[in-house]
Amino acid sequence: MKKAAAQGDAVGDGKRLRIHGTIARDIGIAIVSGRYRPGELLLGEVDASERLKISRTAYRESLRILSAKGLVESRPKTGTKVCSQDKWHLLDPDVLQWMFEFEPSEFLLESLFELRRFVEPEAAALAALRRSNEQVMRMETAIDNMTKHTLGTEAGREADKDFHAALLEATGNPFMMTLTGGVSAAVAWTTVFKHRVAPLRRDAIPDHRRVFECVKAGDPDAARQAMADLVHLALLDTKPMAVHSR
User: Which residues form the HTH gntR-type domain (predicted)?
Assistant: First the structure.
């Protein structure tokens, strides 16, 4: 009986997690899409739970998720209001996903690539100097899987994330490594976005292989340039009428 009860509790907990995660996602998309404006008050627990037909606890947990991501803030007596964009944790993987599910503005998309241009070429240069044999093998395996599955599939995009994560880890810089989740999510969602806009006109995997070969060879200058080229071409891929040139 105790075992059955424990299993029942686990199922109940899982269902509650799914509910408040789903509510957080729905509200998060509404915020990043501009449907809820900065300073706007969200429904209180009682009204929200009645309208959404969920428990007050589930709604409260969803707001905690959003608060942790900088999208809302709650204060006694005033309630929960939407935060301005400068407070959002834009590199949070969930926030990035919600932005791309709605469709980011051209300004945000280009801003994200600006960040990638600042971070990833220098990361590639450091990786060329510090990478271990195991990290080289991980990057090579990731490229092999990208080639096998293509970037048009989820498996291929997971391999792409693995490649960038291994490269950031290979920098040996603990601060840069904390960007792994955000950069990996940015890579994955910009790839999805590129396929949504139009069929890709070229194969991006050779760009990754050039970065890999430079990192493997221990050539930081070549690795930096190869990664700069990769990010530049990835941005062009998001523009339907882009003309690719080196």
Answer: 17-85
54-58, 110-114, 223-227, 234-238: least confidently modelled range = 234-238
pTM of the model: 0.79
**239: helix, strand or coil:** coil
Confidence at residue 9, expressed as pLDDT on a 0 to 100 scale:
41
List pLDDT tens digits, range 2-32: 444 444 443 344 444 578 889 999 999 999 9
Q: What is the pLDDT of residues 62-87, one digit of tens each?
A: 999 999 999 999 988 889 999 999 99
* Last residue in a domain, options 56, 87, 118: 87
Q: Which of 87, 114, 136 is the last residue of a domain?
A: 87
Q: Is 96 within a domain?
A: no
Residue 197: per-residue pLDDT: 57
- The encoded tokens of residue 177 equal 């490594």
| Sequence-separated (6 or more) residues with CB below 8 Å from residue 198 | 240
Q: Where are the alpha helices (DSSP H) in the chain?
A: 2-32, 45-52, 56-68, 93-102, 106-130, 133-149, 154-170, 174-177, 180-197, 205-216, 220-237
Q: What is the CATH number of the domain that holds 65?
A: 1.10.10.10
Gyration radius of the chain over CA positions: 21
Q: Is the domain of 173 the same as that of 63?
A: no
